[in-house]
Amino acid sequence: DIYVVSELMETDLASILKSPQPLSEEHTQFFIYQILRGLKFVHTAGIIHRDLKPRNLLVNSNCDLKICDYGLARMNSSTPMT
């Protein structure tokens, strides 16, 4: 048997943006910072996501953000494999 265990992510950014409660400037900056760090990481690894949208950005109770749904992702052919 194979089991996949992952961190619990309570919601996604799309649900947060649709919420009647406005995001503070600090939360907005924190989310943007995490998105940029995540994209830098995957792009450095030679991966292009190709389906980045609020629904594919999961958020937990600590406001930690994770990029998900790599179904359309491709390897960047110009990035050398090491």
UniProtKB/TrEMBL annotation:
The keyword Cytoplasm does not apply. Residues 1-82 form the Protein kinase domain. One of its GO terms (molecular function) is protein serine/threonine kinase activity. Keywords: ATP-binding, Kinase, Nucleotide-binding, Serine/threonine-protein kinase, Transferase. It comes from the Eukaryota. This is Protein kinase domain-containing protein. It comes from Polarella glacialis.
